[in-house]
User: What shape does this take?
Amino acid sequence: MSGAAGPGSPPGAGLGPGVGRSPLPCAPRPAAALQLAGGAEPARPGVAVIDLRFPRGAAADVQEIVFRNFYTAFLSVRVQRPGARRWVTCLRDYRLMPCPHTERGSQDYFSLRRHQMLCDVAQVTAVRFILRQPSPVWVHFTIEELQLFPPGQKSPQKDFPSWLSQLTPPEHPPSLHGELPDPEKVSTQVQQMWVLTEVIRARQAAARVGRFDVDGCYDVNLLSYT
Amino acid sequence: MLEPDSGLSLTIARIVQRLKGSSLHSQLERQARVSLHNPDIKLESLKEDIKDFLKTSGWEKKLQNAVYSELNVFPSPCHPAAPPEHMKEPLAYMRKAQGSWEKRILKSLNSMSTELSIPLAQKRPVSEQKELLNKWNEMGTDEPDLSLFRPVYAPKDFLEVLMNLRNPNYENGEQPSFRNHLGLIQVPLKVKDIPELKEDFSELGLNIGQLGIDDSSQVPPEFFENEHVRVGQKGMDLFSSVINFLVEQDSAAAQQYVRQGCPTALRADLWALILNISNQPEDILYYEQLKSNVIQHDLLVDSLIYKDVKLTASNDDYYFVFEDYLYQVLLCFSRDTSVLEHFTYSSATPPKSYIRGKLGMEEYAVFYPPNGVIPFHGFSMYVAPLCFLYHEPSKLYQIFREMYVRFFFRLHSISSHPSGIVSLCLLFETLLQTHLPQLFYHLREIGAQPLRISFKWMVRAFSGYLATDQLLLLWDRILGYNSLEILAVLAAAVFAFRAVNLMEVTSLAAAEAVLADLSTLKVMPLLQIFLFATVT
Assistant: This one.
């Protein structure tokens, strides 16, 4: 899949985790806590599972998983392939909170990309998220705003700003030993570069004039509370 | 979380974006164009030759300093899916708490305006403008009637808010348990312990010379200061030839140097280098513009500033001489819209209002005050120590503004940042509880929670409590380590130092009395003993 700049196409609107990408349609069921058989009162086991299936049993390629954490400390991800009953682990005990008793990382946004996965996530029918929070101090834990993204459909073609194309080549280009660079990797990098240009374009610096008044008038009302 | 390479690309993009609009960019372009007259620049290798020229003429160093400054000030970019409020403050309940606190402040300011029938802002009549311009350098001689004004809030009001801060997802049971902290702060933020602090502040170690200890008369000078000063001097001699643009100014190296303290003679220049302040003609012009804004519009906030200066700095033995400078800096600070930029990474939000008669119309929405910062009781103490270093108003102003948007804003807003006041309070309480458990327990039992005494020290970054030379040595380290954690460590070290006396008191008032006077304390020995010499 090549991502070279080509003839322009309509610019993607706005900026999100994947500009021009839409998340895969899926219906994640709410997190279900692990229950021990024979337990009298509801225990708080610190393990919860979110199962996610694609509609109508379809299989899809997963490029990136984006979510917002809510006090989950460790995350494992398993996938199910069409036809197989077995679940394959593609991410084991990924640490979201460096110290589970404290706040760091507790409400951060995370991206899990294909190349971080232990197994191939092409053509999966179901994804299972195993959440672990060993610390007893938190009332709830889950992950929110879960979105799965397929591989980029077409690389958006835009004019790169001139300075990007004039990046100084390294002094000694690495010898390829006759192998071509991995096209996946190249396309991901080019896609990242494209995101960069979008960021720059979207945030054109408005030159600050330093005026705080409106046409010389600064007689203000009382302060607003909203 | 962003992966390393995409995080790096985003950071590069952001820095390029910010520097492109700056005066440094146009200066570099101008220099590059001027260099074309240079016979050494050949057409075939134009790009390389110009790059080499910029390197040797010191412009590359300036660019490096600017990039370093951006990296220090702005946090690493967030995940692209994260909304802007996430960069301000990642935890939702803290954002909410900050919002409620701000609402209280706005209500207080609004009611002050209505009760006293003084508008929040009004244009000054021409005669008054002339009068103010004439006495610009001696505003301290004015004796306006400020009896009706009261500060919008004081540090102890803010402490009450922080004490009541709770994470709704945290098991804050009524029964005492391992989940409840024994101090006043009840939020589970991660704070460092002494082994981690020892590593972070390794340059303060016992075997490394420090200015503030090893330059005192008991230690033969040739052991330490001359070497340290000589190293600094090398930078400073070259600095003095800045006119020729052949200077070796390295912000990052200066920041490293300052961790062991600044010699008094070099401090002003070193701090300016670290904060990347160069006092160019356009900066002086900008300051003059702010001054004219002060002359033209009269703000209610000005009276708060006057009141604060009269109540705090004017009563201080060290700082009363600088009263006029304080007005000149703080009044201009209120009009400076460039301060609004820091709200992208601060958990606070600037207060908004509308031009009279245009309520609700977005084209007439403005921020009040123009810089979005409402001063509180003691705010002027952030500026006062800087007056010892800088005498030129525009440079003093820029240094203060940079210190505020890098450090001081964290001391009066609710956030989870490691240098935010909430983390500092928790760090102080944790250090005290871990390393002086008997003292902590005793003070708690007599109703003298230690934070009640040390909070005001930390909110003011110890300004007005320590002797000035000691305070400046402390602020050297704040700049050197780019963090305010040293304030919490010093607060704990002060308690450790006076532990014997504190164990004998039986009330909060008596504990306050033991810790009332810090002006005789020497900061560096206290820090060294607490971090490196206490048996844990």
